């Protein structure tokens, strides 16, 4: 949600038109926290949000006592908004590289901003997923709802995605769950893709 004239001006330059809407609700993030995370997930922790949009989850994490909050997005407007609100922001294209090599977080969150179909090969997908897992502390939590929408003309790559991410999840003790239809809108993940799922480690 956007709260001031300055924030609205910053996001008026957002690459994604929906990010310019000042009235995007915070409630889906509250529902996710209540169901999956609770306050203990944030107190004195270092939290990363991949694709934080209007930074509502990071704001809630900070309010719940997070020590430091980080956001990563390809959109400079999102980076500027996050910096204004006191988050450590990185503007990067995750299709090209993972910017947090050597950095470890206590929690990694992502709602609809990771697409395994971005990658053109099994090797590149595997490297990306391994990089994400390597940035999570041994006792850290993960909540990721990927947006695995196939690239037009490369729909067959979904079979590779299914296999690689399943092997990766087993190796890293990550649970893959498919939320019931009635819960998807509540969590803000009602977008239409072949398979809506949540990757979770607690």
Task: Describe this structure as you would to a colleague.
The protein has one domain: 3-Layer(aba) Sandwich (Rossmann fold), CATH 3.40.50. α5 links the parallel β4 and β5. The chain has a 7-stranded mixed sheet, with helices on both faces. With 202 residues, the chain is of the alpha/beta class. It has 7 helices and 7 strands; from the N terminus they run ααβαβαββαβαβαβ.
**Domain count:** 1
Give the number of helices: 7
C-alpha Rg (nearest Å): 16 Å
CATH architecture: 3-Layer(aba) Sandwich
Overall shape: it is globular
Query: What is the straight-line distance between the termini?
Result: 28 Å
CATH topology: Rossmann fold
- The proportion of residues forming helix, as a percent range, comes to 25-40%
Classification by helices and strands: alpha/beta
Output the CATH homologous superfamily.
Vaccinia Virus protein VP39
Number of strands: 7
* Main pleated sheet: 7 strands, mixed
Portion in beta strands: 15-25%
Question: What can be said about this structure in brief?
Answer:
The chain has 202 residues and is an alpha/beta fold. The chain contains 7 helices and 7 strands. Strands 3-2-1-4-5-7-6 form a 7-stranded mixed β-sheet, with helices on both faces.
Keywords:
7-stranded mixed β-sheet, 202 residues, Rossmann fold, alpha/beta, 7 helices
Q: What's the SSE blueprint?
A:
Layout: H1 5-11, H2 27-37, E1 46-50, H3 56-63, E2 68-73, H4 76-84, E3 88-91, E4 105-111, H5 122-134, E5 136-145, H6 157-171, E6 175-177, H7 181-187, E7 198-201
Parallel strand pairs: 1-2, 1-4, 2-3, 4-5
Antiparallel strand pairs: 5-7, 6-7
């Amino acid at each position: 949600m956007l709260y001031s004239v300055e924030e609205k001006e910053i996001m008026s330059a957002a690459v994604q038109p929906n990010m310019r809407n000042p009235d995007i609700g915070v409630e889906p993030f509250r529902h996710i926290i209540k169901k999956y995370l609770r306050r203990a997930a944030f107190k004195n922790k270092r939290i990363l949000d991949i694709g934080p949009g209007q930074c509502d989850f990071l704001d809630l994490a900070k309010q719940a006592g997070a020590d430091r909050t980080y956001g990563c997005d390809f959109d400079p407007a999102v980076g500027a908004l996050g910096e204004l609100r006191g988050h450590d922001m990185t503007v990067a294209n995750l299709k090209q590289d993972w910017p947090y090599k050597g950095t470890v977080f206590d929690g990694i969150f992502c709602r609809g901003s990771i697409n395994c179909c971005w990658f053109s090969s099994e090797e590149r997908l595997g490297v990306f997923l391994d990089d994400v897992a390597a940035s999570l502390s041994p006792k850290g939590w993960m909540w990721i709802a990927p947006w695995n929408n196939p690239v037009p003309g490369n729909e067959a790559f979904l079979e590779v995605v299914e296999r690689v991410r399943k092997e990766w999840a087993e190796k890293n003790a990550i649970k893959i769950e498919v939320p019931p239809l009635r819960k998807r809108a509540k969590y803000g993940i009602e977008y239409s893709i072949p398979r809506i799922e949540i990757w979770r480690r607690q």
